[in-house]
Amino acid sequence: MAFIHQILLYIHILVGAAALVLFWIPMAAKKGSPSHKKLGNLYAYAMYAVSISGIIMCIMVLIAPLTIKSKLAVLDAEQLSGALLQARLFATFLLALSLLVFVSIKHGLLVLVAKQNRALLKTPFHLFSVASLTLSGVVVLYFGLMQSHTLYMIFGVLCSVTGVSIYHYIFKAQIKERQWIIEHLSAFVGSGIAVYTAFFAVGGRHLLSELLPGQWQVLPWVLPGVIGGVMISRYKKRSIQQFKVQ
Fold first, then answer.
1. Using an 8 Å Cβ cutoff, are 143 and 166 in contact?
2. Cα(159)–Cα(171) distance, rounded to whole angstroms?
């Protein structure tokens, strides 16, 4: 199991690094152009690889933390208990982020196909995926409140609200004409928020701990969400004008 986890980790890191850069290219391209579609699909495939590998690795840690993190075995019983708890909590947080990436990409692609026909969004698998995201957000929020962990609280809310928002889009009585364009853009930006947050929370954690003191270390974890929120608002206004969303 540890070997499989290691292979998945290499894939996750390599493809994730490419996705960090690739995210911006279709965003800059003209919406609906061939280059936007081609690069957007390439980004989506990369994010599928990142999210699915992330989900599998997190589940592995939750099921068998000592197998994956064998270095913890040298700790005494009391230390081991605390270390295993923290490992599982962090794995739960990363699982929620991985689900946020997966659901955002899947939903963003599905709305392009469905357009006004939202029946295509009501497949059991998609609804289950959104439910999993929502539930994971609630769990992470709970742990964040119990441990006064700012990052967990923020992204527990984000994952929960994203899941509820997607359900609202799927099941509300009617949507505006061409509203699916805004939903697509919002979903893809949401996936970018998740992948950049995961990068700063894991990959850049040690570097940031040296550069930023104390509570300031939360700043780069929160910034992707703030920047992403501004981008969604900006693209929403632009899309309403460009595509005449009624």
1. no
2. 18
Q: What is the mean pLDDT of the chain?
A: 85
What are the residues whose beta carbons fall under 8 Å from the beta carbon of 116, sequence distance 6 or more?
A: 175, 177, 180
The string of DSSP letters for 224-245 reads: HHHHHHHHHHHHHHHHHHHTT-
Task: Measure the N-to-C terminal CA separation of the chain; round to a whole number of Å.
Answer: 52
pTM over 0.85? The answer is yes
How far apart CA 240 and CA 232 sit, in angstroms, is 12
pLDDT tens-digit profile of 212-242?
Answer: 666 666 676 777 767 777 777 776 677 666 6
pLDDT level of residue 104 (50, 70, 90 thresholds): very high
Length of the chain in terms of residues written: 246
Structure tokens at 22: 């690739």
- Rounded CA-CA distance 228/193 in Å is 6
Helical H segments across the chain, by residue range: 2-22, 24-28, 34-63, 65-68, 77-114, 124-147, 150-171, 179-198, 205-211, 219-242
Contact 200, 217 (CB under 8 A): no
- The DSSP code for 199 is I
Q: What is the pLDDT of residue 2?
A: 83
d(CA 170, CA 164): 10
DSSP secondary structure letter of residue 30: P
Question: What residue segments make up the domains of the chain, in order of their start?
Answer: 2-242
Q: Which residue has the higher pLDDT, 3 or 202?
A: 3
Neighbours of 28 (CB within 10 A): 9
- Give dist(CA 34, CA 25) in Å, integer: 13
